[in-house]
Protein: DUF881 domain-containing protein
Organism: Streptomyces filamentosus
Amino acid sequence: MNNDENPRGEQPEGGASAVPDAPVPPPPAKETTGRQRLKAGLWPPRLSRAQLIVAVLLFGLGLGLAIQVRSTSDDSALRGARQEDLVRILDEVDDRTQRLEDEKQRLDDQRTELENSSDQAEEARKQTLEKERQLGILAGTVAAQGPGITLTITDPARAVAPDMLLDALQELRAAGAEAIEVNGVRVVANTYFSGGAGDVQVDGKKIEAPYEFTVIGKPQDLEPALNIPGGVVQTLEKEQATVLVERSDDIVVDALRPAQRPDYARSSSP
């Protein structure tokens, strides 16, 4: 038998007995006050879905009640009025509405009338100015500008007679000339040529060769009218004259005639 074994459980000599370690007691729990426990129970909030729905419904109900109370307080004056007072108030509102409608209609009618009269007056003014401009061009009292031609006639032989220049003027008028100037003299309805070959006068004013016609009109019509067979150009060339026709998109006729007031004629329009 091994001497190290101790079947009897005797303690070895000179040694201390083996005693197991005692458990360590936990630290005493910290006491909490009632306020701390209440705070811990309320925050953070622990809301369930049902509680959230109930809260929303309660909020909506409270808002509706507040609106209803306010509406009731606003209408309290009318709710307490007598039937006769309510009828009178309703009649006053109807009368005021009718007066406002009548005033609106009256103002609309005035605006329409002003717009129509203004438009008519403006249109009449424009038409008057346009008619005045056209008559001024025909009468030679205003300058004119537009497309046209320049007809230049040189007469080295001094053989061009006044009637030849008058024929040229008539051809230009027939071709649609709207404004004509000859050597600085404005041509009008009663313009005439006088004198003799080499001594030509326009409306009593002497002009010298070369004779220059400044004409406003459609160039495509004016130039062919002068060049027709047996026309103005061929007649002048037979007299050893030289004829030059130049088209232009910008012709200026600025020779003016003084406006003359008729002695007897008066406008027949009211």
